[in-house]
Design brief:
Strand content: 15-25%
Mean pLDDT: 84
Helix content: 55-70%
Number of helices: 16
Structural class: alpha+beta
Largest sheet: 7 strands, antiparallel
Number of strands: 16
């Protein structure tokens, strides 16, 4: 649920009604004992340092201030614990990274901590606990009542808030189990610091605090290292996936979707840098690949332009840092941005841009991971280009650039499988041959004949469009596969093509003429048509049937004709 202005007004109104009055009433009902100001200052510093050194537990920042709040409560009472908890609230809020505004988080968290402290303190006194006691059994039993009530109240408030905002929370979630485990583990340490400080004074805070802070720092470094190792492992897995993709489209789609998933990005874009322009290649938003409809921009414009011109990756934690430089496509709710150059052989070829709807979404170490992934991507894209070119060479006729017999054979086999499986209703094969082509070669030269073949190939492609597959079958023979074309429709296509060729003037250079003059030459086609499953359920039989129709039904009938196979 978005934070509205009305919501903020309600929260601040509640805070003004509850918090000041609540503090006054608590002080009246449970007055704080006299305290040494240096001891209070030492505890305050202790609180501040603890809040500045959170630990990563279950992937989230955890502030282990309970051990200090319990000690403060047992020594100074409920008012001191409330004030110290409020100090914790302010530090944590200012350090935490979230998209919710401070104007909402401050009153909400302040009220939540105040309520939690108040309920825990009241439970402690109701159970029979006393402030300042040094009896181990007393502070253990009643101190646990205070700590458990504090934990329960905190979880209940968060649960009710999630329900109110439309979420579907579980009260006994993995996060709750972690919080309870931390509560149990910290409790003995809190009692130890309370007892030690009561007997020794401020030095006890140093004796117990320094090892704790050192341990926290070590754990923080360890967790950071573990996170980097996990990301590196995932980056390696993505690299293996990219290496297995054989087309540039597959590489692009895999890269942009996997990188978005790795970095938990809401938006991911791959931008190509070419001819002094930035052109969008892939758009991945909210878990889906989108059609590219973004016009190109000049290479030095926007966030991509900054990455290109400086050859440096960038991270922006909030919109105010980048909103003035955007010229291309970024959703209006974007906040955090991370972008890095994509380079190959020390040459920048593009930019990878990630976006998230919340602030502080990306970390600095992720730039290194992105740099590694961009290298994987550039190498895989280059390899896929080589593979595609190699496949194109093996599948295409070198002269006409149409598909060759090898490709036609495989395509026909797959198409017939679809017909026999009921995935295609019909499949027509149209075979054509240039009439008296040998005479053209003899009269004008073989290169002139090649020119005619190339021009004819383009005309056939135009007529077929996206409806079928065109291949050069032999010397002057061509084949068209037309899925879901019945015999009548295939015959209509063949007759339309025949008439167009008959009236078309093919331009050639007469290589056998001394002056090599430009000529217009007329040719005709004889065409045979066969259709599956009516004529055959086998691919090779379909070709033989069309070939038979071509020579018996068209060639022997006078050429420049269309004939259908007849059983």
């Amino acid at each position: 649920m978005p934070v509205t202005k009305k919501k903020k007004i309600v929260l601040w109104s509640l805070w003004l009604l509850i918090f000041p009055v609540g503090l006054f009433l608590v002080n009246e009902a449970f007055p704080a004992p006299e305290a040494d100001k240096w001891n209070l200052l030492a505890f305050a510093l202790f609180f501040i340092i603890t809040c500045l050194m959170p630990m990563k537990i279950n992937g989230a920042s955890t502030y282990l201030v309970q051990w200090a709040t319990i000690a403060v409560f047992l020594k100074y009472g409920i008012l001191a614990e409330i004030l110290f908890s409020q100090l914790t609230v302010m530090i944590v809020i200012l350090r935490s990274r979230t998209s919710e505004p401070l104007s909402f988080r401050i009153p909400f968290n302040s009220l939540m901590f105040f309520t939690t402290s108040l309920l825990a303190g009241l439970a402690y006194f109701a159970a029979g606990g006393q402030i300042g006691s040094l009896d181990l059994v007393h502070i253990t039993v009643y101190g646990f009542v205070f700590q458990f009530t504090s934990f329960l109240a905190n979880q209940l408030i968060l649960y009710l808030y999630d329900k109110f905002t439309g979420a579907n929370p579980k009260f006994f979630s993995i996060d709750v189990i972690w919080d309870f485990s931390i509560t149990i583990l910290v409790f003995p340490y809190a009692l130890a610091i309370y007892i030690a400080e009561s007997y020794v004074g401020i030095p006890a805070l140093l004796l117990l605090g320094i090892p704790f802070f050192i341990m926290t720092a070590i754990m923080k470094m360890y967790n950071s290292s573990e996170k980097i190792n996990v990301d590196l492992k995932k980056a390696g897995e993505i690299g293996h996936q990219l290496a297995g993709r054989l087309s540039t489209d597959e590489v692009l789609d895999t890269f942009v979707s996997q990188v978005a998933d790795l970095f938990k990005a809401d938006y991911a874009y791959v931008v190509d840098y070419r001819d002094n322009q930035l052109q969008m290649l892939r758009m991945f938003e909210n878990g889906e690949l989108l059609a590219n409809n973004v016009p190109p921009v000049r290479y030095n414009k926007g966030i991509g332009g900054k990455v290109i011109t400086t050859n440096m990756a960038v991270i922006y934690d909030r919109k105010s840092e980048w909103k003035d430089m955007v010229t291309g496509h970024l959703p209006i709710d974007s906040e955090s941005i991370m972008a890095t150059p994509i380079a190959r052989n020390n040459k920048i070829e593009g930019v990878l841009i990630l976006g998230a709807r919340h602030k502080y979404a990306f970390n600095r170490h992720q730039l290194q991971i992105m740099d590694i992934l961009s290298t994987y991507f550039a190498v895989s894209l280059e390899k896929a280009g080589y593979v595609q070119r190699a496949i194109a060479i093996s599948e295409r006729c070198g002269l006409t650039k149409l598909y060759n017999y090898r490709y036609l054979d495989a395509k026909l086999e797959k198409s017939m499988e679809k017909v026999n499986a009921g995935e295609l209703d019909t499949l027509s094969l149209v075979m054509m041959d240039i009439d008296r082509f040998k005479g053209i070669n003899d009269q004008y030269g073989h290169q002139s004949g090649n020119d005619i073949l190339i021009q004819l190939a383009r005309i056939i492609e135009e007529e077929v469009g996206e409806e079928g597959t065109v291949a050069r079958y032999g010397g002057e023979e061509f084949v068209v596969l037309l899925p879901n074309y019945g015999k009548d429709l295939a015959l209509l296509f063949a007759e339309t093509l025949r008439k167009r060729i008959e009236s078309h003037a093919f331009q050639i250079i007469n290589d056998l003429d001394h002056e090599r003059s430009m000529l217009d030459v007329q040719i005709t086609l004889s065409i045979g048509v066969s259709t599956a499953p009516d004529d055959s359920d086998d691919g090779m039989a379909l070709i033989r049937n069309a070939d038979r129709a071509l020579y018996i039904g068209a060639k022997q009938a006078g050429r420049n004709k269309v004939a259908a196979y007849a059983k």
